[in-house]
Write a structure and sequence with these properties.
Number of helices: 7
Oligomer: single chain
Strand content: 5-15%
Strand order of the largest sheet: 1-3-2
Number of strands: 6
Shape: elongated
Structural class: mainly alpha
Bound molecules: zinc ion
Radius of gyration: 39 Å
Order of helices and strands: HHEHHEEHEEHEH
Largest sheet: 3 strands, antiparallel
Distance between the termini: 112 Å
Length: 240
């Protein structure tokens, strides 16, 4: 289901020939653009044009790496499924609004058509032309709105069903992204805690060392002072 939806986005944005790009990108990460071009049977420039257009809408993202031997950059592409489904849902909702407006107009207004030219016009236009076709000068017939209304209603039901399904898929993808994000946050938090612990331990270590070295120095000083004192005492005694 997801693949069908994703392909319909590519078809809307580019064309039907570009839709196999979804098969090449789905479930993978960082796909080499030369591989995509080869599989699509397109030149690298044609392939890049498609990918750039998709990336303008946020549907794909890339990383690039320099080819050390040839000296140019190679792009590696990843499909953003959540963003793609998001865009599709928006498009379908806009389409729904359009169809619902059309349905409303069909229910409220009258339309006229010319059998010969197969052209339909609104009542205002028909009135302006005195109900005579401006192309062939035949009299307009009143359109059968009922048939159009039924078609529109069918399309609206189907569209609403599609929107529900896309929304469901989009939410599933959204939850996956959220989970990934939370894992990243937790990992970063653990790293922060570990770093703090390490720093604290290092401080303690340094403090211990410092204390130890002070303790080592102390007795020396004490001994020195004692020595000095005894010398003084000696000197003093000598003087006496
Ligand atoms: Zn006509």
């Amino acid at each position: 289901m997801q693949i069908k939806f994703l392909k319909s986005i590519v078809e809307n944005l580019i064309n039907k020939q570009a839709t196999p790009i979804i098969d090449l990108l789905i479930g993978k990460k960082h796909v080499n653009e030369f591989l995509i071009a080869k599989k699509l049977g397109l030149t690298i420039n044609q392939t890049r044009n498609i990918l750039y257009k998709l990336s303008d809408f946020g549907l794909v993202s890339f990383i690039r790496k320099k080819d050390k031997r040839k000296g140019w950059y190679i792009y590696f592409w990843t499909l953003n499924i959540f963003q793609s489904l998001n865009l599709l849902e928006q498009n379908l909702k806009e389409e729904l609004v359009k169809l619902e407006n059309q349905l409303k107009e069909r229910k409220e207004k009258r339309y006229y058509y010319c059998k010969t030219c197969s052209i339909e016009v609104s009542e205002e236009v028909a009135l302006l032309n005195n109900f005579i076709c401006s192309e062939c000068e035949q009299v307009y017939n009143l359109s059968n709105n009922q048939e159009v209304i039924e078609n529109l209603e069918r399309s609206i039901i189907k569209l609403k069903k599609d929107i529900r399904l896309v929304n469901l898929e989009r939410n599933i993808e959204g939850e996956k992204l959220e989970k990934k994000k939370n894992i990243k946050i937790k990992k970063a938090e653990t790293e922060r805690v570990n770093l703090r612990k390490k720093k604290r331990l290092e401080k303690i270590k340094i403090a211990k060392k410092l204390k130890k070295s002070k303790e080592l120095k102390k007795p020396k000083k004490a001994v020195f002072r004692k020595l000095k004192k005894s010398k003084n005492v000696k000197k003093h005694k000598e003087k006496i």
